[in-house]
Amino acid sequence: MGNLIRVLTRDLDSSGCNFFLDFENAQPSEAERATWEQVKQVLEEGQEVLEELQMYKGAGEEIRQAIQRPTVEKLQQRAWAAVLPLVTKLHNFYEFSQKLESSLRLLLNVLACAEVPPTQQLEQKQALAQQFAHILHFTLRFDELKMTTPAIQNDFSYYRRTISRRKINKLTEDSQNEVNNELANKMSLFYACSTPMLKTLSDATNRFVSENPDVPLENTTDCLSTMASVCKVMLETPEYRSRFSSEETVLFCLRVMVGVIILFDHVHPHGAFVKTSNIDIKGCIRLLKEQSPNSVEGLLNALRYTTKHLNDETTPKQIKNMLQPN
């Protein structure tokens, strides 16, 4: 992503402790390496997932012809042949979401479970903080692409309708490549969500908190709020932003900021929007709106529609108004 990014968070810690977060070139210590290597493999696979999703074209024309002429077997076979490999891809994406969930929990075990404060953990374990950021970046990017690819749900809906008919007619020659009903139901719920990867991470973070009652909730929420503040400082301070070599670096930081805000909102009992929140939510929204609308509309929509507490009575009207669609 270009030049080394180091963010001085002098205004994040009331004790006056200054530290840098390196989102690009931080290297793991020997103690961190096993976790880092495990997550690294998932992140590398994530790049392949994004590339496949970007190239996803769908089988809309084949499906349309098959539906319009249901008695023409050749068209039915052509549509089925077009959809089957696409469903295999969708299955792979779904399976990857489970790997991503495991990686997130692995990092939370390190960044939020230690006896030292989460802020200190982020400072000391920057390579793992960097990977946490990349998971959030992937998640927001995947969901942005998914929301602009309606063919995904169209293809999968056609698949589910057709698989039932084929089984009734005992057409099972492709059974080794088919998704069974139980898995299809899970995948259907996954893709029915507008932001499926973000929901996966939100659910995973909630499970992490509930399954680790010995870990103070503040450990997790402080970790998330600190990362949101780091990204905000990085983006709004000319000294740091001038080091960005491309617009993609800006988008990376924006996605991470939005991702941790949403996770925070799902985990904290009162959410991210109340006045007592550790996140400067007004500043974050203002920062998003200062960017090119085309590049951040998906992120604003993620705050509008995938957060838990935005519509609570405790959310100030000014924040609700700031997030109103234009």
Structural write-up:
This protein has 326 residues and is mainly alpha-helical. It has helices spanning 30-54, 60-68, 73-111, 118-124, 126-147, 151-168, 181-192, 196-211, 217-236, 238-241, 247-267, 281-289, 293-305, 317-322; strands at 6-8, 20-22. It has a two-stranded antiparallel ribbon. Helix 1 (30-54) runs antiparallel to helix 3 (73-111) and helix 3 crosses helix 6 (151-168). The longest helix has 39 residues, at 73-111. 38% of the residues are buried. Mean pLDDT is 86; it is low at 1-20.
Proportion in β-strands: under 5%
Name the shape in a single word: globular
Indicate the mean pLDDT: 86
Question: What topology, given as strand order, has the largest sheet?
Answer: 1-2
Number of helices: 14
Major sheet: size, sense and barrel closure? Answer: 2 strands, antiparallel
Give the helices and strands as they follow along the chain. EEHHHHHHHHHHHHHH
Q: Give helix % range.
A: 55-70%
Q: Identify low-pLDDT runs.
A: 1-20
The chain-level structural class is: mainly alpha
How far apart are the termini? Answer: 31 Å
Rg for CA atoms: 22 Å
Number of beta strands: 2
Topology at a glance:
Layout: E1 6-8, E2 20-22, H1 30-54, H2 60-68, H3 73-111, H4 118-124, H5 126-147, H6 151-168, H7 181-192, H8 196-211, H9 217-236, H10 238-241, H11 247-267, H12 281-289, H13 293-305, H14 317-322
Antiparallel strand pairs: 1-2
Helix pairs in contact: 1-3, 1-5, 2-3, 3-5, 3-6, 3-8, 4-9, 5-8, 5-11, 6-7, 8-11, 9-11, 11-13
